[in-house]
Amino acid sequence: MRSKVIGAVSLAVAAVGLFAATAPAFAQQKTITIWWVKGFYKSEDDALLAAIKKFETKSGIKVELSQYAVQDMIPKTVAALDSGTVPDVAYSDTYDVQAAGKWAFEGKLEDLSDILLPMKSEFAPNTLETALLYNDQTKKKGYYGFPLKQQTMHVNIWNDMLEKAGFKQSDIPTKWNDYWSFWCDKVQPGIRKATGQRLYAIGQPMGVESTDAFQSFYTFMDAYNVKLVDDDGKLTVDDPKVRENLIHAMKDYTDIYTRGCTPPSSTTWKDPDNNVAFHNKTIVMTHNFTISIPAKWYEDSINPALTQEQRDAGKKAYYDDIITTGFPNKPDGTPMKYRSDVKTGVIFTASKNKAEGKEFIKFLLQEENLRPYVEGGLGRWFPVTKASQQSPFWQADKHRKAAYTQFTGGTIPFDFTKNYKFTILNNENVFAKAMNRVVSEKIPVDKAVDEMIARIKQVAG
What we know:
Elements: H1 2-27, E1 31-37, H2 42-59, E2 62-68, H3 70-83, E3 89-91, H4 95-98, H5 100-105, H6 113-116, E4 132-135, E5 140-143, E6 146-151, E7 154-158, H7 159-164, H8 176-195, E8 200-203, H9 211-223, H10 240-258, H11 273-279, E9 283-288, H12 292-302, H13 308-321, E10 322-325, E11 338-339, E12 341-346, H14 354-364, H15 367-375, E13 382-383, H16 386-389, H17 398-408, E14 411-412, H18 422-428, H19 430-439, H20 445-460
Parallel strand pairs: 1-2, 1-3, 8-9, 11-14
Antiparallel strand pairs: 3-12, 4-5, 6-12, 6-13, 7-9, 7-10
């Protein structure tokens, strides 16, 4: 009996010892919270989830992931900043263009130089620079964000509609004025006559709640070589030449509406609406800040949830009927150089687990993890790393090749990378407001531009 008691006590002591030895290992397991924008395609989210699972296995750090629609990300993040309960890592497609510069200026973002500088040579030109922002607390710049992917302006055309209107791709002019006249004066009458329907040649985003509107207008400004800020971020809008060319750009942009070449509803379009109009074939062409339009049809072509007929329609649209191309030459005859919008994620200074958050970012930015995530966007996003840009993915079809050609031809950054207050102007969409003053309120273009300049000076001067 005595030996049984001693044995029982020994087992109990051993169990306590085992628990004592293993308890700290469990206690030390860290959990990080990540907020991430919901992907446009299932493949994009699947690649992110796969990377997170690999990270958890390798690091022993648990990830609590919350995904939100793109329009909800900034309001939720601002509320979290106000309450002091921020996630450890956060990414949204809108942070860079609408918020990150302001947050960096206010000292709300963690400097990620320690993880980005060692891999600086891996990034393509004009990518990492987007995250180099000014902090007014430290009075210097730092890398207040991690670049993941980028986008630029493309033109999508229904080739079958163009042919129905009596034209082929080789008929499209390359000179600026001839180009827009071709769509308005030739293609639109042609397609209406051929179909007997009130179709439109162009989908021209003009909605105040549309990022497409100001991104497209930037392309028109670039056509006239307008620079709103210099390299130091100082405004140039008092230069009479800048004002003159802004008026030219605004007139060209709004003329498409006043000539009746874009649907009347385009003044209230939100970001998906020019896509929808294109997919519904109520417009022949539109300009869009990714190749998400053809990618939608590619996704249809491989979607097992659709019927064979629907997959075949997706395949035909993607490979045969839709053209992806760039803008015509500028009015001065030189080729267009496109703005690149580099998408960045952040760690906040109020984040509770910064070291572990940085470990996740370092892991995600490794080529074998980042490439599947970017390519999961089906061409909607272009890589920020040199190695991923040379992936066979970008030579696989005509749409991706067109995007590759535009990006590798050289890009320029948006003004908010030089003057963070342009994130405020982008949020307000002063550009689309000016458009609507012209087309809806019928005020002269020069007056609308002067009002816009006054507001730019008020906010960013």
